[in-house]
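thought: fold this chain, then report.
action: predict
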Amino acid sequence: MRAVLTAVDRAMEFALFAIFLAFSLVGGLQIFNRFALGLPLSWSEEFQKFGHVWMVFIAIPVAYRKGAHIGMDAILIRMPHAMQRAIALIVEIMWLVLALAIAVFTLHLMEVAKFQDSPGLGLRMDWVYAGMVLGAAYLALIAVRRIVAFFKPSLAETLA
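observation:
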């Protein structure tokens, strides 16, 4: 199980790298074409916008898994340990609810968007929004892993 979860984690991190590399290269190509050749690309801005959507929604769960999101704990650290644990569990559950809400509402949006094409790239817009569903599914996976580890600390290392 740990090997599968590690493979999923690495795949998401590689996807982030690949998306960032792709839209950085396209941005550089756009600058070169516009200023050196005088022939701007008609599709590069749209490609970069869609790449940012995918990158952000994949980066959120990666940062959550690594504990890289900002937390305000000035009051929390003054509370009793049992209350800190209860609040930590509530936070984990809220992450799971957020992931499910993003996935459900984006799937509804994709039903409408499948009839629309992007003007620059000609992509079906539901493919653009698919990155949000992928990120939400990964976020839900991370939240479930953390909730399970919360109740079974012995599994924490297996699921981390």
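thought: worth noting. The mean pLDDT is 91.
final: tokens above.
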